Amino acid sequence: MFSSMSRCPMAAAAARAVMRAVRVSEFGGPEVLRLRADVPIPAPKDTQVLIKVHACGVNPVETYIRSGNYARKPALPYTPGSDVAGVIESVGERVTAFKKGDRVFTSATLSGGYADYAVAEADTVFPLSDKLNFSQGAAVAIPYFTAYRALFLKGRAKAGESVLIHGASGGVGIAACQIARAYGLKVLGTAGTEEGMNIVLRNGAHQAFNHREANYLDKIKEYTKMQGVNIIIEMLSNVNLAADLHLLSHAGRVMVVGCRGSIEINPRETMNKESSIIGVGRFLETEEERRQCAQVVLEGIEAGWLKPVVGPEYPLQEVARAHEDIIHSSGARGKMVLLP
């Protein structure tokens, strides 16, 4: 199903104009992900940069887009992937912030990140600190920008409030734990395994709960002394949303970050506490929001509290297995990454 090109120096030089890239020519299951070795290397336009990809994050939303069951459908064929880390290969004529050889990460490629090279607008690219390796760099943009936007730009979190992060051992969950702890919130997190719970506790949570236990909701209520939590960051709202409404305090907010289907709820539960359900759409961020998120992230890296946790790493030719695992694995253990 997959093809590959020789990685020896002479072959690489001879094939400099083309690269390996995962292409999707029809919507469907993971089997539609095809690694091609004859994809032209994109050229950056005036305000763009070309990045030699060293690592690319894998996100659940990419599986929804690939399947065709998502509101945003790219034109076929396309290359998936948004958040990459790597080295600047070349820049457009109007780019002054970066030069060839700079280590960077980006929040949004234009050509797709599951590839040897990717083009991005320069204003979506940020310097990658030497404190982080490339796999960690690929675990920054989508998880941390999403987490900060959900907590503060949309959720209006304040120091001293409590937050429950449902599915806290994945990329966005760990990011939310670290950010919430750094900004003075009381942090609760859930995970599906003992290992996941330990990861959550090591990354800022004051308390962790196993969401596979039948009585875990009662344990959360007991921990909050039946007062509930101010904010819930929800990664699987089609499973948890109805229960979330019972866990909120007065004027609590559920931030819907992830969803894989429909669920039935009783709207009266929002009336009883004047609570809110707020969707968080990563693709809807404004330029100002992106700048705010970037500032927080870069400051957090320098301060040392922002430390991405990398989970499973896959070579590019195993992209189909990565898409299977990110949906069906028994429990998240950090950010999933592809390595070209």
Automatic annotation (TrEMBL):
Q: Name one GO cellular component term.
A: cytosol
Q: A GO term (biological process) for this protein?
A: xenobiotic catabolic process
Which cell locations does it reside in? Cytoplasm
Q: What is its EC number?
A: 1.6.5.5
Write down the Pfam families for this protein, in alphabetical order: ADH_N, ADH_zinc_N
Domain Enoyl reductase (ER): start-end pairs: 28-338
Note the coiled coil stretches, chain numbering.
Answer: none
Note the subunit structure: Homotetramer.
Q: What is this protein called?
A: Quinone oxidoreductase
The major lineage groups are: Eukaryota, Metazoa, Chordata, Craniata, Vertebrata
The encoding gene is: CRYZ
